[in-house]
């Protein structure tokens, strides 16, 4: 087994695949795992990917896409043995990237310095893909509480208020929270699964 694609199972009212991430530790040959847009929860396990039995750095290229789930915690340091990877985690509830990962050549990072932004924008920063690229830096955003944020509520608050005002929100049957200083994700009818307003 080298490739598995179970992405985009969350659709409409279906949460897609859920529970903790499965372990692929026994699949030593797997190099491509796409589980984006599901409802997986919990931490990324340190044995998530079956690394070859070796004490050295893994030089194969891996592709892992865990974007837009409900994962939390820290991206584990045990994955630092993977030197080259496309590793996508945007739109989750992850709070940190193990610093040892930041010098690896992940997501086209040039491998010089220790810039974790190529893995995921830090807390307090965001951009449309949730990580820095050569042409798209992470931008400051006070409301981006998780790493890999793909939106900034400050801008979205104004958009939502524009909708509220143009559609006569003050006479809506349910306008609970609208216009308050509360997090927009708590306003009636607004939900933010995986860090994205819907």
Low-confidence stretches: none
Main sheet? Answer: 5 strands, parallel
Q: Which oligomeric state applies?
A: single chain
Helix content: under 10%
| Topology as a string of helices (H) and strands (E) | EEEEEEEEEEEH
Strand segment count: 11
Mean pLDDT: 84
Q: Ends: how far apart?
A: 36 Å
Q: Approximately how much beta-strand content do the residues carry?
A: 15-25%
The total of helices stands at 1
The main sheet orders its strands as 1-3-5-7-9
Radius of gyration: 19 Å
Structural class: mainly beta
Give the overall silhouette. globular
Protein architecture, described:
By secondary structure, this protein is mainly beta. 7% of the residues lie in helices and 23% in strands. The protein is built from one helix and eleven strands; from the N terminus they run βββββββββββα. It has one helix at 153-166; strands at 3-5, 18-20, 32-34, 39-42, 58-65, 70-75, 82-88, 93-97, 105-106, 125-126, 139-140. The strands form three sheets. Strands 1-3-5-7-9 form a five-stranded parallel beta sheet, with no helix packed on it. A four-stranded parallel beta sheet has the order 2-4-6-8, with no helix packed on it. The model has no long low-confidence stretch (mean pLDDT 84).
């Amino acid at each position: 087994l080298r490739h598995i694609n179970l992405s985009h199972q969350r659709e409409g009212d279906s949460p897609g695949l859920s529970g903790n991430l499965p372990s692929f530790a026994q699949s030593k040959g797997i190099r491509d795992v796409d589980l984006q847009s599901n409802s997986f929860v919990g931490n990324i396990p340190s044995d998530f990917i079956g690394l070859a039995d070796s004490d050295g750095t893994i030089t194969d290229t891996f592709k892992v896409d865990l974007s837009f789930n409900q994962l939390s915690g820290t991206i584990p340091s045990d994955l630092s043995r993977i030197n080259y990877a496309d590793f996508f985690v945007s739109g989750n509830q992850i709070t940190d990237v193990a610093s040892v990962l930041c010098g690896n050549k992940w997501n086209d990072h040039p491998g010089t310095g220790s810039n974790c932004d190529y893995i995921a924008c830090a807390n307090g920063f965001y951009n449309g893909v949730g990580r820095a690229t050569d042409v798209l830096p992470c931008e400051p955003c006070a409301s981006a509480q998780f790493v890999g944020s793909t939106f900034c509520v400050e801008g979205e608050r104004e958009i939502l208020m524009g909708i509220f005002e143009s559609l006569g929100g003050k006479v809506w049957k349910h306008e609970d929270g609208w216009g308050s200083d509360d997090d927009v994700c708590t306003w009636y009818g607004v939900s933010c699964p995986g860090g994205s307003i819907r």
